[in-house]
């Protein structure tokens, strides 16, 4: 996809509408149920509702559960759903269908693969992670480190390569999140994976903020393990099940720690002794959340026939447009840019800093422009290229400009902290 260069003069709303008119992905917006009057820039946190999901879930409840009852585990193909949905996700992350399964949460899946990875390198004692990664990753790494008596080195993002080198042949595992949840900064997955493996260690990528917006190539890069969320850009719905990827050749050599009956080779023999399934099924633990899986599977149809390279190209263009509009239209209001300027170093979000960020974001949401806030001062704007238009970014920036000009963010109601920011 070629993206027309933007004019040199200050942009207008009409320019952004022209970009939409030329956008080959624009028709995909029709695949979503978007509320009237809402400008949704938070698909990095909770993806929008794709059309057909509500009907599919209603059918699952009324017919498959209500009428089919327990027979639906077979008759409605409930039992194989974790593998089936995993195959769909595999295409989106550049993996093979039998390397991905959908289950549990990202946190739980990270626990499983981290223990499995450390068991592959029993004589090595160091795990390298990023300081400031999403907290659940650090909490899980710390709990596994305590259990398995290994040391964790936390490095700032630009110090990660040096920390990997310093660990040298003591390095067991590198665990990183591909796109940072606050800054949107993107790691070089190819270089870090290759270097980690050259040192004889194993890499685990958290794809929470990259799956569905970046043309990931896990197989081509020979990534060892990966985990990620279903409810962000993949639009699986609130608390959707997560997914886990294990590279094919590791399937026969790993032992994951949460041995439950659905990971057993023959679960319906109910044998006393655990025998892991030889395939990706071994990453399963217990009974899958079927309604969540059914919603997720229906939601993934929004990606049917969609080329991730085109999605990435639009995502980068949206980010560049947003940064340019911030420069042109928000100068002097105290905003800083918390994301990299270069699209190639950024995921599908742009984050701004402002010391009154919480109140400003609340005022923005009250106007129907939905982004979110991350303490202490980050305003996050996520661009889901399947449904976000270029003109939406213009309108969001104009709303921000208006809030700053009028001082509307100072209204006391916008200072009241809610439980979820
Ligand atoms: C990088 C990253 N990992 C994991 C999670 C969440 O994990 P879980 O689905 O287990 O709550 C998030 C949530 O925002 C995240 O940003």
Task: Furnish the topology, listing elements before pairings.
Elements: H1 13-21, E1 32-33, E2 39-40, E3 49-50, H2 53-65, H3 72-75, H4 81-93, E4 100-102, H5 106-120, E5 126-130, H6 135-148, E6 151-155, H7 160-167, E7 171-177, H8 189-198, E8 202-206, H9 218-221, E9 225-228, E10 243-246, H10 290-299, H11 308-329, E11 336-337, E12 349-353, H12 357-366, E13 369-370, E14 372-374, E15 378-382, H13 390-406
Helix pairs in contact: 1-13, 2-10, 4-10, 5-6, 11-13
Short synopsis of the structure:
The chain has helices at 13-21, 53-65, 72-75, 81-93, 106-120, 135-148, 160-167, 189-198, 218-221, 290-299, 308-329, 357-366, 390-406, and strands spanning 32-33, 39-40, 49-50, 100-102, 126-130, 151-155, 171-177, 202-206, 225-228, 243-246, 336-337, 349-353, 369-370, 372-374, 378-382.
Plain-language structure description:
The protein is α/β, with parallel strands linked by helices. It has 2 domains: 130 residues, Alpha-Beta Complex (Aspartate Aminotransferase, domain 1), CATH 3.90.1150.10; 250 residues, 3-Layer(aba) Sandwich (Aspartate Aminotransferase, domain 2), CATH 3.40.640.10. The protein has a 7-stranded mixed beta sheet with strand order 4-10-9-8-7-5-6, with helices on both faces. The radius of gyration is 22 Å and the shape is globular. The model has no long low-confidence stretch (mean pLDDT 97). The structure holds pyridoxal-5'-phosphate. Pyridoxal-5'-phosphate binds next to α5 and α6.
The separation of the N and C termini measures 36 Å
Please work out how many helical segments DSSP would assign: 13
Shape: globular
Order of helices and strands, N to C? Answer: HEEEHHHEHEHEHEHEHEEHHEEHEEEH
Instruction: Output the CATH homologous superfamily of the largest domain.
Output: Type I PLP-dependent aspartate aminotransferase-like (Major domain)
Question: Any low-confidence stretches, pLDDT <50, length ≥5?
Answer: none
- CATH top level label of the largest domain: Alpha Beta
Radius of gyration: 22 Å
CATH architecture of the largest domain: 3-Layer(aba) Sandwich
How would you sum up the major sheet? Answer: 7 strands, mixed
DSSP strand tally? 15
Strand share of the residues? Answer: 5-15%
Number of domains: 2
